[in-house]
Each structure stands twice: as structure tokens, then as C-alpha cells.
Design goal:
Elements: H1 4-20, H2 42-72, H3 76-102, H4 111-155, H5 161-183, H6 191-208
Helix pairs in contact: 1-2, 2-3, 2-4, 2-6, 3-5, 4-5, 4-6
Length: 211
């Protein structure tokens, strides 16, 4: 069992790694098995870069949410589940960052702000609602992210096979995280909470598309 101090230090370490350190994936990048794809036009490359930047921001926020909720929970099983999901999100961070570099694009300049906001939301969810509410928050988050990634599959250029392969694997992982949280006893969130989450996500994706 980790002491509160140890858990706080672990959360701080996760924060620094997410925002400052190069991300190391534990699984191969799905893009490596994808066909090379067609040569993208300048406008298509900009669109793919913007969409992958938004996806990278989403993974930064996911790391913040899971880290904060793992810090807040007193249930070792719930903490273990959150930490396992966070490891998958680290893969997503690495994959999206690598693809951004291939597209000659960059991550969002506002990543520290996105992280801080998501961390605060995750900490509040873990402290106020308890374990079942915290797991319900995971389910709602992942369902919204899954829908968001599905929309990106529709928007990505047809010839950008590497980006499409990454997004497809991310979508599969997010669906699995939601199912695992449901099986662990997640409680449904009140409708207004889900609505507020959708509004916040819309603001984030709109801004991150450009900045």
C-alpha cells in the first residue's frame, strides 16, 4: 500500500512525464502496419495535423483525469484499473505525437492548461462522488471520446492510412476502458454532468484544432 505522500509523488511524476518527457509506447504503433497511403495535399496534411493534435490533447486530458482519480480513490482495485487505463493512454500519447511529427505539425501550445483543468475535474469526481461515481465518470468520458474518434475517422483524408490506423486502435481501446469500468461497478452519471462534459470537450477540441 502506498502512503498518501507516495501517491502524491507518483501523481507529480505522471504529470511531469505527460507534459515534458518523451512518451514511450509499450505497444507497436498501429501506423507501422498500415499501408503508406496516398501523398497528402497541403490542405489534407494540415487537416490531419489538426485532428491528430486534438487527439493528442485528448490523451493529455485522459492522463490527467486518470492520475487525479487514482490519487483520490481509497480503493486499491479501482486505483489499479485507472492506472492500467492510463498506461494505454500513454501509448496513445506516443502514437499521436509521432504522427504529428511525421505530418510536420506540433502539439497544442495549451497542453499545461488542458492538463490542469482535467486534473481538477478528475480530482473533484474522485473526492466528491466516491468510487462508483468515479468509475461512472470514466465510462462517460470514454464513451464521449469514442464518439469523437469515430467522427475523426469520417473527417481524416481517405489517403491518410497511418493516422486512420492510429485512431481506429485508440477508439477500440477507449471502448474497452468504458466496458471495464462498467463491469467494475460504475454508477450512471446525472444527465447534466454528461452535458457539461460535452460542452467542455467541444471548447477544448475547437481551440486545440488551431492552437
Amino acid at each position: 500500500m502506498l502512503s498518501p505522500t507516495d501517491r502524491l509523488l507518483a501523481a507529480a511524476d505522471s504529470t511531469l512525464r505527460t507534459l515534458l518527457a518523451p512518451h514511450q509506447a509499450s505497444r507497436p504503433n498501429p501506423a507501422a502496419k498500415a499501408p503508406p497511403g496516398a501523398r497528402l495535399s497541403e490542405s489534407e496534411q494540415r487537416l490531419s495535423g489538426a485532428l491528430m493534435r486534438v487527439n493528442h490533447v485528448g490523451e493529455v486530458c485522459a492522463q490527467a483525469l486518470y492520475t487525479a482519480q487514482a490519487l483520490a480513490t481509497s480503493d486499491p482495485a479501482v486505483r489499479q484499473s485507472l492506472e492500467a487505463a492510463a498506461r494505454d493512454e500513454t501509448d496513445h500519447l506516443a502514437w499521436t505525437r509521432e504522427r504529428l511529427e511525421q505530418l510536420s505539425d506540433r502539439v497544442s501550445l495549451l497542453n499545461p492548461l488542458w492538463y490542469a483543468g482535467a486534473f481538477g475535474i478528475g480530482l473533484l469526481a474522485g473526492r466528491v462522488g466516491g468510487e462508483r461515481f468515479s468509475l461512472g465518470f470514466v465510462v462517460e468520458t470514454e464513451r464521449q471520446v469514442e464518439a469523437h474518434l469515430a467522427s475523426h475517422m469520417d473527417r481524416l483524408p481517405a489517403g491518410d492510412a497511418p493516422s486512420r490506423a492510429i485512431v481506429a486502435q485508440m477508439k477500440e481501446d477507449e471502448a474497452r476502458h468504458a466496458d471495464e469500468a462498467l463491469h467494475a461497478g460504475a454508477a450512471p452519471l446525472p444527465a447534466p454532468v454528461g452535458g457539461l462534459m460535452r460542452v467542455a470537450a467541444r471548447v477544448m477540441t475547437t481551440v486545440a484544432h488551431r492552437i
